[in-house]
């Protein structure tokens, strides 16, 4: 099985040009204004047009108005919305598109409820919880919290790098990783050598 690799928080053509030549599956553009990696819709549309057709485009939203999400999906029709806030299933399903739901996990997160609530999702993303930030913190979380309890295919995010990706990929139903700050020089600027190294290691890892 080839593991799914998503690189999130792309903000510029230099990084996108490099990434488009790598062996990954998806990129994420952050449309949440409070994010350190926020870009405007027009920028996301321009950047998405640079990508090979084989790449999937994820648009990251956090508790944003449905009208804005709809507008973005009309502008970038092949994009997959990724909901990273407290959006419920009804909201996520309302756009008539494949969607991804990110869960910021805590020790008391009700995983059985997550399984039921978001079983219509294309995939889930499990990220570390932070009081202030919705993703991109670089903080890891205890992967034992997931164990074999998730029934929907999912990615692991939250400080995933070459030291811990194997542990994530060995989890039941984990289909890949979502990386952002662990492969950056600074927020929104990727470290190409770190990214290349991680991609090569993931691609050579077989469960």
Task: Quote the CATH topology.
Answer: TIM Barrel
CATH homologous superfamily identity: Aldolase class I
What fraction of the residues are assigned to beta strands by DSSP? Answer: 15-25%
Low-confidence segments: 133-137
Order of strands, widest sheet: 1-2-3-4-5-6-7-8
Secondary-structure content class: alpha/beta
Name the shape in a single word.
globular
Question: Please, what is the average pLDDT?
Answer: 92
- Please count the helical segments: 7
Q: What is the CA–CA distance across the termini?
A: 8 Å
Known CATH architecture:
Alpha-Beta Barrel
At the first level of CATH, the class is: Alpha Beta
Write down the secondary-structure element order: EHEHEHEHEHEEHEEEH
As a percent range, the share of helical residues equals: 25-40%
**Care to count the β-strands?**
10
Report on the biggest sheet. Answer: 8 strands, parallel, barrel
What Rg is obtained from the alpha carbons, in whole angstroms?
A: 16 Å
Number of domains: 1
